[in-house]
Design brief:
The structure is a single chain. The protein is rod-shaped. By secondary structure, the chain is mostly helical. The N and C termini lie far apart (93 Å). Helix content is 76%, strand content 0%. Residues 49-86 are annotated as: Disordered.
C-alpha cells in the first residue's frame, strides 16, 4: 500500500512539473498567435483606410519602363538559338 502511495505521489509530481512547463509554453504560443493576428488586422485596416495611390505614384512605383530586346539578336534567347543552329 505504501509503495502505491509513493508511485502516485511521484506521478503527481511529474504531472505538476510537466504542466508547469507546458502551460507557459501554451500561453506563449497563444499570445504569439494573437500578436500576429492583431498585426495582420492592423495592416489590413491601415490599407483599407489609406487613400488609393495617384497615377503619378503608381507610375513611380513601377520603375523605369524596360527597353524591348533589339531585333538584332542581342538577347539571351537569340544567342541560344544562334548557338543551336550551327
Amino acid at each position: 500500500m505504501r509503495r502505491l502511495a509513493v508511485i502516485v505521489v511521484v506521478a503527481l509530481a511529474i504531472a505538476l512539473i510537466a504542466s508547469l512547463v507546458v502551460l507557459p509554453l501554451g500561453v506563449v504560443i497563444i499570445l504569439t498567435a494573437l500578436y500576429a493576428t492583431g498585426g495582420a488586422i492592423a495592416v489590413s485596416w491601415a490599407n483599407r483606410r489609406a487613400e488609393p495611390p495617384s497615377d503619378d505614384q503608381r507610375r513611380a512605383d513601377d520603375g523605369p519602363t524596360p527597353r524591348p530586346l533589339s531585333s538584332k539578336g542581342w538577347g539571351v534567347h537569340s544567342w541560344v538559338t544562334r548557338r543551336n543552329s550551327r
